[in-house]
Amino acid sequence: MQDALRLGVAGLGTVGASVLRLVQEHGEHLAVRCGRPIEVVAIAARDRSRDRGVDLAGYVWHEDAEQLARSNSIDVFVELIGGESGPAETAVRAALSSGKHVVTANKALLARHGVELAKLAEANGVSLNFEAAIAGGIPIVKALRESLAGNAVTRVSGILNGTCNYILTRMEREGLSFEECLKEAQRLGYAEADPTFDVEGNDTAHKLALLTSLAFGCETSVDSIYLEGITEITTADIEAADELGYRIKLLGIAQRTDSGIEQRVHPTMVPKSSSIARIDGVLNAVAVETDYLGEVVLVGPGAGGNATASSVVADIADIARGDLMPTLGVPAAELKPYTRARMRRHEGGYFIRLSVFDRPGAFATIARCMAEKNISLESIVQRRRAPRSEAPEQSVEAPRTAAPQPVIMITYETTEADIQAALEAIGRENVIAGKPRMIRIERKPDAATAQG
Ligand SMILES: NC(=O)c1ccc[n+]([C@@H]2O[C@H](COP(=O)([O-])OP(=O)(O)OC[C@H]3O[C@@H](n4cnc5c(N)ncnc54)[C@H](OP(=O)(O)O)[C@@H]3O)[C@@H](O)[C@H]2O)c1
Questions:
Q1: Of 63, 78, 80, which is best to mutate to test ligand 1, by the most ligand atoms within 8 angstroms of its C-beta?
Q2: What is the pTM of this model?
């Protein structure tokens, strides 16, 4: 058997402590699978006295992660600190520059500096692996880098943030508000004390930026992503979606279009029959559409110490076996510049919810604004303002009441530019109260649906 692969682990929080435990518990079978033992030799965190629920005896303690990264006693630096800059970035650069392989779960760091760090890894002849950074335990990086290598990817999409999916699932099942579900998610430890990064979609965007590079062989461009979080989703949206046969999910979507690559993160209505609609709670899912294989959907735990440690250790095992892959699937010099498709040119169906004043001609005005942009309506429903159980659907000719009435429309395929222009025109006509609600629809059936 070859010499042991020596690890230095920086960051001993949720993920780091699980990685130590996994390596301790599965050491024997890892050694057999990899043809050599895998040993943690040194660790770093901030607080040496903190109980991490795992035996730290026998590991050399470093006060400074960068010092650990440069240490000649390790072959692989495992970065589990987090953050797009600061100590994680400094230590990763130090490790790569001094010829250490790096394994990280840090999507923020890679979404910002991935291409540059990939170049640094290549220049030093080492690996920079990040399976755990996208969808936690789901082996999507390996799937894109290796298993799907013979395919051209046309689209990659997914539920990439468990916190948002948990909140949306609870809102739907229990009719609770966004705020109530967020509090519950925080109580259960699914959401951070400051949940902004999750619920505003930034975390999904970081993962999507990396998926885009892996899928399309292009440079990472997180700032080009169209971003909309879930904070404005209401129970009324969820109820209306439900009645029309849809569920609302926060999706990250990257797809090839004639004008470039479209990257977007936003609440999305998906048909209830699609497999992505059935991904509930904190689970994640990633769907990849390819030319030869068709579509493949991977589902699993997207977060949590053990699930994430599973991916971290898979990356370590690759290094132990000598399987060194380019970070983003192709050598960094081969990555194409990212060509951004304008969001205005996005084509799809739209869900629109308006509060329409009960005035003669109001509906005719709305219909005219839509028609002027060649937008055809698949359905239009007016509902009285009443609790769900007492709310009979009405045709647009239903009896009038004084308060503005909720009107829900589903459009056929149109462009983002046209729907935005139509909604602006409606807004100028003084026929609606408040702002229109608009949610994009993804109707495309996925693999599980198509094959029954
Ligand atoms: N948690 C998940 O489910 C999950 C899933 C996928 C990816 N990730 C990613 O995994 C990484 C770690 O996440 P986590 O949830 O494990 O975070 P965490 O529980 O907050 O742990 C962070 C660790 O980093 C240590 N640390 C902070 N500053 C440091 C410094 N300057 N030098 C050395 N150590 C330092 C902390 O030390 P102390 O303990 O002494 O304070 C702590 O042990 C992040 O990049 C995250 O995005 C997490």
A1: 80
A2: 0.94
